[in-house]
């Protein structure tokens, strides 16, 4: 997996909900255009579930939560259905207690929890 370079011009792609046949070609089109325009593109893995599971510690290994997208990667995936980034039906605003990531269980312990604030945190340097 490629190392993420800290760039101001970065686009992240997340696929949420269910799989549909056109996701990989859409990811491919967005990635190729963004790369040609000088952006770095990061694919966020497992939809919103992956993002809620990110450990916000600069020493944590979150490499299974994202991948740097290259033209080579998206060209291979663009010919297949579904999404190679994987998806989830997770809604960050409605996380059942038993699905709250372990590192957030002390803070979020209601029967249904809103983890939107965790998703929106901007401390990217401690995440990737």
Major β-sheet, in short?
3 strands, mixed
Query: Strand content of the residues, in percent?
Result: 5-15%
Average pLDDT taken over every residue: 87
The CATH class is Alpha Beta
Distance between the terminal alpha carbons, to the nearest Å?
12 Å
CATH topology: Rossmann fold
Helical content stands at 25-40%
Total number of domains: 1
Strand pairing plus helix content: what structural class?
A: alpha+beta
Rg to the nearest angstrom?
Answer: 15 Å
Can you describe this structure?
The protein is of the alpha+beta class and 128 residues long. The protein has one domain (10-126): 3-Layer(aba) Sandwich (Rossmann fold). The chain is built from four helices and five strands. Helix 1 (23-36) packs antiparallel against helix 3. It is globular and about 45 Å long. It starts with 9 loop residues before the first strand and ends in an 8-residue tail after the last helix. The model has no long low-confidence stretch (mean pLDDT 87).
